[in-house]
Here is the input.
Amino acid sequence: MSVVLLSISIQFNLIGGPFLKVFLFVGYITIFQIIPEEEAMEENFGEEYLSFKKKY
Here is the structure.
């Protein structure tokens, strides 16, 4: 997804620094999607998810 956003930004020469937008997007998704999702999975699946998480 990051590569797609970066490619579109460069292709259309968007103002605001394409690299900055990609890093902001990745940070936003990490904070507001990935972390809460992992917390919910720990809550729902407990020890089974934690052992899976240790493998990867």
